[in-house]
Specification:
11% strand; 5 strands; alpha/beta; 203 residues; globular; five-stranded parallel sheet
């Protein structure tokens, strides 16, 4: 039994190391450059995710605001408004409607956290697809940290980090974990970091 337990642990951590080795550096750099431009233009960052990626979005909003001085929001931080929109108008349009009420514009950007990136044909995360279409219609930038083949996000984004797929059985946990790795890399990058983090200043 211990060998079985240890075997999975070793395999999972080896996969994580391989993903880290294979992360697309040029895509990460492009995202850093886009976010530098966003901040210089006083644009806002709207971070969208579903499920575990929604929890990541809330955490990332904190980091982009506090560490990088980028005005950031996510619809899932306001459960009353979001569920009202879902109840009254439907899931597919919920994020796009929230973005319209936020006056999404050409100076702003979306950051999509998603395992699949949205796929209208398969009816998966269609609310992300609709939000991206709205962003495109108002000339807002689209960024993404996604998994598998990246879906609609990877097809149309201005900058997108696709987390390498090393095992089809662990796509979701690795993608959601590496969303955090990538956004923490970005907010702590010297070119974006505007404020020191607490434990880096404690001696």
């Amino acid at each position: 039994m211990n060998n079985e337990l240890n075997g999975y642990i070793e395999t999972y951590l080896k996969e994580a190391a391989e993903i880290s080795r294979r992360l697309p550096r040029p895509a990460i750099l492009k995202m850093v450059e886009e976010l530098i431009a966003l901040r210089r233009a006083d644009g806002r960052l709207f971070i969208l995710g579903v499920g575990g990626s929604a929890a990541n979005a809330s955490h990332a909003v904190n980091d982009f605001r506090k560490i990088a001085d980028i005005e950031s929001y996510t619809p899932t931080d306001n459960v009353a408004e979001l569920t009202a929109r879902i109840n009254d108008d439907g899931w597919d349009s919920s994020y796009a409607a929230w973005l319209r009420a936020s006056r999404l514009g050409a100076k702003d950007a979306l950051l999509i956290f998603s395992v699949g990136g949205g796929n209208e044909q398969k009816r998966v995360s269609v609310n992300l697809v609709e939000a991206i279409r709205l962003a495109r219609s108002v000339s807002a930038k689209v960024l993404g940290i996604v998994g598998r083949d990246g879906g609609y996000t990877a097809q149309v984004a201005d900058a997108c980090v696709v987390i390498p797929n090393v095992n089809g059985a662990t796509v979701t946990p690795h993608t959601e974990a590496f969303q955090a790795v990538v956004w923490h890399l970005i907010v702590s990058h010297p070119a974006l970091r505007a404020n020191e983090m607490k434990w880096e200043t404690v001696r």
